[in-house]
Amino acid sequence: MTGQLLSLLTPLALLLFVGFADLSLASVEEDEDNYMQEMLTRERYNQVRMPEKSISSTANAQEEPKQKPARKMPKGEMGNDKKTDKITDPTKPVKTPNRKTLKNKKSTLKESNIISEGVAEFNSMTEECPPMGLETLKIDDFQLHASSTKRYGLGAHRGRLNIQAGLYEDDLYDGAWCAGRDDPLQWLEVDARRLTKFTGVVTQGRSSLWSSDWVTSYKVMVSNDSHTWITLKNDSADLIFSANREKEIPVRNIFPLPVVARYIRVNPRSWFYGGSVCMRAEILGCPLPDPNNYYHRRNEVITTDDLDFRHHSYKEMRQLMKVVNEMCPNITRIYNIGKSQNGLKLYAIEISDNPGEHEVGEPEFRYTAGAHGNEVLGRELLLLLMQFMCLEYLSGNQRIRHLVDETRIHLVPSVNPDGYEKAFEAGSELSGWSLGRWTNVGIDIHHNFPDLNSILWEAEAKKWIPRIMFNHHIPTPEWYLSNNASVALETRALIAWMEKMPFVLGGNLQGGELVVTFPYDRTRSQGVTREQTPTPDDHVFRWLAFSYASTHRLMTDASRRVCHTEDFAKEDGTINGASWHTAAGSMNDFSYLHTNCFELSMYVGCDKFPHESELPEEWENNRESLLVFMEQVQSQFSLSDIQVQQAPVITISSCEETQTKSRFNFFILGFRKGENIANHFSKVFTMRSDSLHQNKSFYYRTEQEWNGGQLSERVEANHD
User: Keywords on this record (predicted)?
Assistant: First the structure.
């Protein structure tokens, strides 16, 4: 009896043992991801770093080379070339047919990896789809998901192309999405919230000073319901896309055929040895028309301005400025302020009712852009601004007419054309964070000016102000003027231009953030990287900065997502430059201390080089701010019976002294020798307050008297 029971139990026990073993084997995969069975092969963990033997999509992969980032790539390798529907071998260059062939061609996609449920077969469109907006924040954090994360600061919401980590990592704002485990089961997912034609992926490694993490290959999966996933294939083999070879240079992969779905996942298959599964990404896709979708046209900004919304090469920029000049010859003038290292002219356009002439009581204003060649948005905004002002002036817009008639406006859209040409040739998605930032000799133009702050602060420490020297019109040091000084040709051209024109107010447009910064840009304390360092005119600078930020569509929006690591919206979109990060020799500080021109920096967008499809919205974001900031130069107060007979350039400053011995509270610039400014409304800018509506004593001096320290005459000024 016992033997019979044993004979019956033995097969049953063996069956149960095998069943439990099989369940335990399955649970390993289930625990990693409870609904990835359809898309992942059953692999052991010890096979993590082994390359997979399948057809690799290398022909369509683009990486900007490190030594020659601006080289032209073969047609078959260029990711922005138009693709056809028929691809026989994705590892070979693709031959693009002519437009006539594409127009007559009516073939239906027949590909096994197109989603069968809920997605009809889709005829490929010839144009390449633009970025969906991970970098520009059009894709919000709730649309990004991941299989796992190391910690919150490395979550899926940080997996955006070109996102930057702060100086201090291991906080809430790190520089990539990093998986919680280093295995091939991890993924980064984007929910497009509507059917979208996906055409490609751009990837980067982790932004970090201390870590080396990047993905070297990946698969792509798509889904309509986020449960059933289909891997992109070539015939019967999974497509393995070649990814990055280092952490900063973006690599773009274009799919052999577009695929229509709502969800898309990037599944890393291999990564840098010794690193972790970390990546930043951008998805290329075209949303399909769906008027019933809740998110259709949600928060979409549409412009009504008929302007040239595209990126312009150097020649195209020059041609556009010429067209504007021909359209409005009575109010525009084109000139150049110098040349770049490569011999490209630094073009400027003047907009005024009497171009080429300085008028009594008419202030001089300037906008510059492109000091960092890869920060392209500011350049295009100035090209749009000159078009807009010309067209609106011709149409009789009274606001624009008043601005043009009462102000002499100068626009320099490209201060660093050499750097821009490098970034422009690479393209908006492949230029990365720094390609083209510096001049051809590696100089950062914006921080290439003489450090007058240290000269001023040393003089104040020695109590030389105002007996020996003044705290304005500080001369340029002799060493800086020598030929051996490391000064870019572009910087020298800017300084000569700033000294020639009696500018009152200026702004330089930059990119990569949403904030307005104002002087000082250098901290006063030695060795301190961040410190509030106000000027004696801090209240004026704050008002000017707020005038731009408050009229921008996004800068002061407390609900908006931060671009990288700093939440500037809580400070109304403005910040003292030194309290953000210290920088000696900035254009803003030099302009303030050397020429008495109030200069601010406007960081006009999170994306330094947005795709041209984003330009209409970026124009709407900044248009009102650009106009309002210019209008600040029209703030007025009157002076009583002042005759100017010998001063070449008059500067009037308050004699009221502060703790820093300041005589720098109000300025009136732009009056020439022999001009009578009695009863003129002199153009200055100041924040009105009750303390200003009173009589105050002022001094005025010639430039020689400023330098010689002699007091000329005392006059009275009344504020309106």
Answer: Disulfide bond, Glycoprotein, Secreted, Signal
Given strand 513-518, what is the order of strands in its sheet?
332-339, 345-351, 408-412, 364-369, 503-510, 598-605, 513-518, 574-576
Q: Which residues of 589-600 are buried (b: 16+ CB within 10 A; e: fewer)?
A: bbbbbbbbbbbb
The CA-CA-CA angle for residues 190, 285, 143, to 5°, reads 20
For residue 397, how many other CB atoms are within 10 A of its CB?
Answer: 15
Q: What is the pLDDT of residue 581?
A: 92
Q: For the segment 361-400, what is each residue's pLDDT rounded down to a tens digit?
A: 899 999 999 999 999 999 999 999 999 999 999 999 999 9
CA 478, CA 487: separation in Å to the nearest integer? 13
Per-residue burial over 167-178, b if 16 or more Cβ lie within 10 Å, else e, is eebeeebbbbbb
Domain range 339-344+362-375+415-633, its CATH number among 3.90.180.10, 2.170.120.12, 1.10.10.350, 3.40.630.10: 3.40.630.10
Please write the tens of the pLDDT for every residue from 37-69: 233 332 322 233 334 544 455 445 655 444 344
Does this chain's domain 56-287 share its CATH topology with 339-344+362-375+415-633?
no
The predicted-structure confidence for 166-176, as pLDDT tens digits, reads as follows 877 777 889 99
How does the average pLDDT of the chain come out, rounded? 78
**Residue spans per domain, the chain:** 56-287, 339-344+362-375+415-633, 637-718
Give the right CATH number for 56-287 from 2.160.10.10, 3.40.50.970, 2.60.120.260, 3.50.50.60.
2.60.120.260
209: three-class secondary structure by DSSP? coil
Write out pLDDT tens, residues 525-558. Answer: 988 999 999 999 999 999 999 999 999 999 999 9
Q: Which amino acid appears at position 606 of this protein?
A: C
List Cβ neighbours of 552 (8 Å cut-off, separation of 6 or more).
Answer: 514, 573, 621, 622, 624, 625
Range of 457-466, 641-650, 703-712 with top mean pLDDT = 457-466
Distance, in Å, from the CA atom of 265 to the CA atom of 226, rounded to the nearest integer, reads 10
Distance separating alpha carbons of residues 206 and 403, to the nearest angstrom: 46
Question: Are 542 and 598 a contacting pair, CB within 8 Å?
Answer: no
241: its two tokens: 């896309």
Query: How many C-beta atoms lie closer than 10 Å to residue 660's C-beta?
Result: 14
